[in-house]
Amino acid sequence: MSRSRFLILLLGVPLLLLTGPAPASAATxxxxxxxxxxxxxxxxxxxxxxxxGTCDAGESGVFGVTVTQxxxxxxxxxxxxxxxxxxxxxxxxxxxVVADVDGTSFHVGDAxxxxxxxxxxxxxxxxxxxVRIRR
Length: 135
Prior knowledge:
Layout: H1 3-18, E1 31-41, E2 46-54, E3 60-71, E4 74-85, E5 91-98, E6 109-119, E7 123-134
Parallel strand pairs: 1-7
Antiparallel strand pairs: 1-2, 2-5, 3-4, 3-6, 6-7
Signal peptide: 1-26
Organism: Micromonospora purpureochromogenes
Keywords: Signal
């Protein structure tokens, strides 16, 4: 998908958070987790992040991931997302996050990963974790 649509998605997430939770009848229960496996790809040009989440069956869901890592005095950062059709059960997705060209490449070491799952217009689940990037 184009960067402009991704930017709209990223700008829309804070609005979703400000609107508050969806009514209890609208969700069957949600969860969001970052699997401990974050893998360095293409010599640091990106990382692959495994996430799991649950959203209402039949809805379109978006797993969004941002990875931020301090590398010396520079910052490696990137964001991306994948679209899934929600099953109502826990689902796993691999999100390939490419390092921004204005920063530096990712390296083996600790990084902050922020992940969210958004579905049905205004329902969401999110988490942030410090993870280890591995080869």
